[in-house]
Amino acid sequence: MKKAVKPAKINPVPSICPTEAAAMTSTHSQNSLYLYPAQPDFTVDHLPDFIHALQAIGLIAHKIDTEKTAQHYFTGEKYLDYIAYMGCAPSIQFEAGADNEKFCFIKIHQLPKPQLIHSRKQPRAPHCPHCNKPVKNWQDKKTAASIHCDLCGNSSAIEKFNWRKMAGYAQLFIEVTDIFPKEATPQQALLDKLAAITGSKWQYFYSCQ
Ligand SMILES: [Zn+2]
Question: Which residues contact 154 (CB under 8 A, 6 or more apart)?
């Protein structure tokens, strides 16, 4: 069994071929692409309406397990129009195999309050909105809604920092599972449709847990 990538490798975002990625999914790593609204406290009043809208645009299909309450969905028929895969020809698995729970599906997370989801593997220090320098000790300087920068002495809201696409602060997330950083990117058409559905601008990041 292949071990996780050595942390000694400094190259922050190795471009990984999906065949390599497929081999790596046998480890315990979880790699996802997250879409989230720019407005951190944005939430939908009625989740079923939001789900229905995502099904109507073909991003998601039906719920994976109707018995469970978790908001897990199969990818919809327009999924590959919205998410563009890079590099070598992708061999994307859209359904679980006999003993394989690792496949590409979509989770909807609606949280009681805004939360920072950040990549634990391949982490990147966020850049301060005032001095634009990386705040390396941000985890020690973080409160519920802000981070203090020792370099310039300013405290700023978490969402004002530049997380360099490896973290996001929001209350609502659309998680696409089994995607490595930069392996696939959401197309502008999808971000536009999400904006039209919600009335809020959308953005994305990658997470390796
Ligand atoms: Zn600063």
Answer: 128, 130, 131, 148
